[in-house]
User: Fold these one by one.
Assistant:
Number 1:
Amino acid sequence: MNLETFGLIGWAVVFSLIGALLGIILVLLAAAFVPRILDRLTPNIDEGREIVRGNTAVAQYFGLVCGACIIGLSLVVAAAILGGILAALH
């Protein structure tokens, strides 16, 4: 292996680490803001109060929508990291 190959592998590692850190930050921000956005989209329903009262339908809906948004963002971040690695190795 020549020196150029080691340089490309080094850049791939740098891109993946930076992408992973940014991805972690984005997922944590999504976990903080998605429930607030869902509260604003359903102004007539107080999800927190309904969950405390034992309304499992609201709890499941709220959990599924928030979880789906976070998983969707995680897939986008993973694709971006993979694209950065492939760009560095190409």
Note: Helices lie at 3-41, 47-53, 56-89.
Number 2:
Amino acid sequence: MNRAVCVEASFIVAMLTPERYTTLATTRWKTWIEDDFRILTPTLLGYEVSSALYRKVLKEQIEPKDGKVALEQFLSMDIESIHLPELHTEASKLAKQFNRPNVYAAHYLALARHLACPLWTADERLYNTVKEKFEWIKWVEE
């Protein structure tokens, strides 16, 4: 069976750094790997994860060495980046529809909708904004 999930940057960052949802995200990830899920994301994931790790170092939330280790762990993860130019248009529409301040998170929504697979997030604001409209968005605590 070919099962797939889409993951959003906050979910990955929660796995890589000590956060409230680290254990939950890591447990879910291990289950996906064991059950042979395809883990998908738009191509912007790497930019967002590396930026989030850098910000955590700058804010002294993690040590520089831990940021480096987290980035190396991320780069070794089995995540399939999907490049679909039409996602930019769809993400712009979704960002406007939900009055989002940017289109980054909307790219994940657009990809999950396009692929008809669940989107997992640890971004509470995103989740709460769209959960009534998109039943396939999944909260890290589910």
Note: Residues 4-44+79-139 form a domain with the Rossmann fold fold (CATH 3.40.50.1010).
